[in-house]
């Protein structure tokens, strides 16, 4: 078992909020973390994919009133969407009786349904937290490249062999396509969505070209947008927006898109191990997406992430705007002897960031010029965590 960084934050929110929604893709470890939290106090757990547990909520007001003094953990809560309307009154009545926090922990495998259901009805009564797969601060630093190759889903990362890890990821993809996507109301044919997902993996961390994707699948641009929205809402794909503030330059506006877990991207591409990955054309792209996803996951709450690119190609891979307004400009290199390119200098002249880094595969931190350091991903993630 590896401990999760989010555990302390989740406990904090439960102490100060009546309900907390823990979002994350399936198999990321939400249930395990919730049950660990539940063991620390009086709690009851219901898996709403289980018919028997759903039946217990046939009269939710009465059932939840009977467990008012316990933390109620509801797994896959999107399966009972009508429950959200009831929770508002239950929470408000509990508050009047002095039960102002720690009532409900709701787990969901997608952002879309939960956010739609809870938007206004539970405003001021609910907090949100996202749990992804393992990140670079949750594992032994010597296993960073294993995390990159296998991805961070616990059963993939911790598998006894690379073959077992690959088998798990292939089953994960198949289950999502054949069972989970239809469960969320989508009628997209499984093979079509697999092809689209694979196309995104081939174009990992590239600027979105919806027209090319549409031609490849024989559909229109609106259909591509729908497919992309679905995978983003399922927390499987990230859209990294372009920097859009006025810096007196013509800026690229389209987002970059990537499969959030590199292990899943590698499985979609049939890349079995590190040796195969190092000889594959996508190696630099998946390394970049791995670093960017790690840094977004470990950045302070409220951090905004963008990439910066002008029409003449001046670019920064990742621009983080920290809650206090400070800018960090980050370039990603796969080389063990990284160098700063002219475009990074030009972009930093436009942005004037407070911190500048080049992330590379090594662990030593050293200056590349008087304002830019080369740094490993673990060290930079730790620096982000302590940033103010």
Structural description of this entry:
The structure is a single chain. With 388 residues, this protein is α/β, with parallel strands linked by helices. The protein is 44% helix and 17% strand. It is built from 17 helices and 14 strands. The strands form three sheets. A six-stranded mixed β-sheet has the order 9-10-11-12-14-13. A five-stranded parallel β-sheet has the order 2-3-4-1-5, sandwiched between helices. β11, α16 and β12 form a beta-alpha-beta unit. The longest helix has 22 residues. The protein starts with 5 loop residues before the first helix and ends with a helix.
Helix and strand arrangement:
Blueprint: H1 6-16, E1 19-23, H2 30-39, E2 43-47, H3 51-55, H4 60-66, E3 71-75, H5 83-96, E4 104-108, H6 111-118, E5 126-130, H7 144-150, H8 154-157, H9 162-183, H10 190-202, E6 206-207, H11 210-217, H12 221-233, E7 237-240, E8 256-259, H13 262-268, H14 274-278, H15 283-298, E9 304-309, E10 315-321, E11 327-332, H16 342-351, E12 355-359, E13 366-367, E14 372-375, H17 377-385
Parallel strand pairs: 1-4, 1-5, 2-3, 3-4, 11-12, 12-14
Antiparallel strand pairs: 6-8, 7-8, 9-10, 10-11, 13-14
Helix pairs in contact: 4-5, 7-13, 9-10, 9-13, 11-12, 15-17
């Amino acid at each position: 078992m590896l401990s999760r960084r989010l555990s302390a934050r989740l406990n904090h929110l439960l102490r100060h909020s009546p309900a907390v929604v823990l979002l994350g893709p399936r198999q990321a470890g939400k249930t395990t973390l919730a049950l660990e939290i539940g063991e620390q106090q009086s709690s009851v757990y219901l898996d709403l994919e289980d018919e028997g547990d759903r039946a217990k909520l046939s009269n939710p007001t009465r059932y939840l009133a009977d467990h008012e003094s316990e933390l109620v953990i509801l797994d896959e809560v999107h399966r009972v969407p009508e429950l959200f309307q009831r929770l508002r009154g239950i929470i408000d009545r509990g508050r009047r009786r002095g039960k102002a926090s720690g009532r409900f922990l709701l787990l969901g495998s997608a952002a879309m349904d939960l956010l739609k259901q809870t938007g206004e009805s539970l405003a001021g009564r609910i907090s949100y937290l996202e749990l992804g797969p393992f990140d670079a601060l949750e594992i032994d630093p010597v296993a960073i490249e294993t995390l990159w190759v296998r991805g961070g889903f616990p059963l993939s990362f911790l598998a006894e062999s690379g073959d077992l890890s690959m088998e798990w990821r292939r089953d994960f993809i198949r289950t999502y396509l054949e069972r989970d996507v239809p469960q969320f109301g989508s009628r997209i044919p499984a093979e079509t969505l697999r092809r689209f997902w694979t196309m995104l993996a081939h174009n990992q961390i590239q600027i979105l070209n919806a027209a090319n994707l549409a031609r490849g699948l024989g559909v229109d641009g609106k259909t591509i947008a729908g497919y992309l929205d679905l995978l983003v809402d399922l927390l499987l794909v990230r859209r990294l927006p372009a920097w859009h503030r006025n810096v007196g330059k013509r800026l690229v506006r389209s987002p970059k898109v990537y499969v959030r877990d590199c292990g899943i991207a590698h499985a979609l591409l049939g890349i079995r191990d590190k040796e195969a990955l190092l000889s594959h054309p996508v190696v630099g792209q998946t390394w970049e997406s791995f670093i960017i996803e790690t840094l977004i996951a470990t950045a302070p709450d409220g951090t905004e992430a963008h990439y910066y690119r002008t029409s003449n190609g001046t670019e920064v891979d990742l621009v983080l705007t920290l809650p206090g307004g400070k800018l960090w400009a980050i370039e990603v290199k796969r080389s063990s002897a990284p160098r700063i390119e002219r475009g990074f200098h030009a972009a930093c002249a436009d942005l004037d960031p407070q911190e500048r880094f080049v992330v590379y595969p090594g662990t030593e931190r050293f200056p590349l010029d008087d304002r830019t350091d080369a740094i490993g991903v673990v060290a930079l993630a730790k620096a982000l965590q302590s940033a103010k």
